[in-house]
Amino acid sequence: MKITYALAGLMAFGATAATAQTDMPFALDWKFEGPAAPYTLAVDQGLFSDQDLNVSITEGAGSLDAIPKVATGAFPVGFADINSLMRFKDQNPDAPVAAVMMIYDKPPFAIVGRKSLGVEAPSDLEGKVLGAPPPDGAWAQFPIFAAANDLDMDAITVEPVGFPTREPMLAQGEVASVTGFSFSSTLNLERLGVDPEDISVILMADNGVDLYGNAIIVNTDFAEANPEAVTGFLTAIAMGWQAAMDDPDAAIEALLKRNPAADADLEKRRLLMAIDANVLTDYVAENGLGGVDADRMASAIEQTQTVYEFQTVPTPEDVFDNSYLPDAEARMLN
């Protein structure tokens, strides 16, 4: 599809007066669950306002959801799967959207199954039913996972499911496994009463998939007009993650203000799972949050080419723009 963009409309997000804060609505990938707590904590602790930003946060409906929102200018910033962004940009080369800060250095893309239903390893998926929400980021990468593990896609029955029914169907045995984020599907199953010992988690990153995960994305028209605001936003994002690591209880408290029905203990576990497995990797500990390794990004592009035919093969710079990142010192996590 072809999209027309108007910079004038985007400028509505900018400050209306020299002394006013810059409005930066932020589109999440998913609901107000544990991994969103660093962002809500950053709002409540004034980390964005310290950067002269007025940030409001809106829930999303999947890892692909924020991409068109940011590309069309409905939101200046969002959180989305960088691999899906890569394909979106290939199909919409004029779309003013780019990734500017990596958050999930190790992606949580996973196949979550039940051992009692015969799913513990990639090869177990053949001959069984896999539940997959069409807008799911993990499902979007499943063909790469299947190719890396020599799976016969024709031997896997794929059942399109909705996000609300994904884990309930697995809990009830209507499907043998589902695609999803490891920290989401695992804890949702436990909440539904599935024995943790019966849950198998097949991480794509541990099974041949050399991809990055979700990143902060930005409307590039907005970024070019407001570069300091974007760098300030990313500075506050890094500070929010550090604050959540320092005090996860405070982070969950900020989250519960937006989602009072959430289970505090479960969402704290979800947050800590994301930190330990996806955010604070060895690379991030050494280099700071937000950057990418160019060779690894090039490898991700090559791997995507095995299952997707690009109109124009992108370079790492086409996918990820590091020019708005604050200095590494401001992004170090511990």
Which helices and strands, and how do they pair?
Blueprint lengths: L6 H4 L11 E2 L2 E2 L9 H8 L8 E2 L2 E2 L7 H6 L5 E5 H10 L5 E6 L6 E6 L14 E4 L4 H4 L1 H7 L8 E4 L2 H9 L5 E5 H10 L7 E5 L10 E6 H6 L1 H20 L1 H11 L5 H16 L2 H6 L6 H12 L10 H4 L15
Helix pairs in contact: 2-10, 2-11, 8-12, 10-11, 11-12
Explain this structure to me?
- The strands form three sheets. Strands 4-2-5-12-6 form a five-stranded mixed β-sheet. The chain has a five-stranded mixed β-sheet with strand order 9-8-10-7-11. A two-stranded parallel sheet has the order 1-3.
- It has helices spanning 7-10, 37-44, 66-71, 82-91, 137-140, 142-148, 163-171, 182-191, 220-225, 227-246, 248-258, 264-279, 282-287, 294-305, 316-319; strands at residues 22-23, 26-27, 53-54, 57-58, 77-81, 97-102, 109-114, 129-132, 157-160, 177-181, 199-203, 214-219.
- It contains 15 helices and twelve strands.
- It starts with 6 loop residues before the first helix and ends in a 15-residue tail after the last helix.
- The protein has two domains: 7-106 and 212-331, D-Maltodextrin-Binding Protein, domain 2 (3-Layer(aba) Sandwich), CATH 3.40.190; 109-206, 3-Layer(aba) Sandwich (D-Maltodextrin-Binding Protein, domain 2).
- The protein has 334 residues and is α/β, with parallel strands linked by helices.
- Helix content is 40%, strand content 15%.
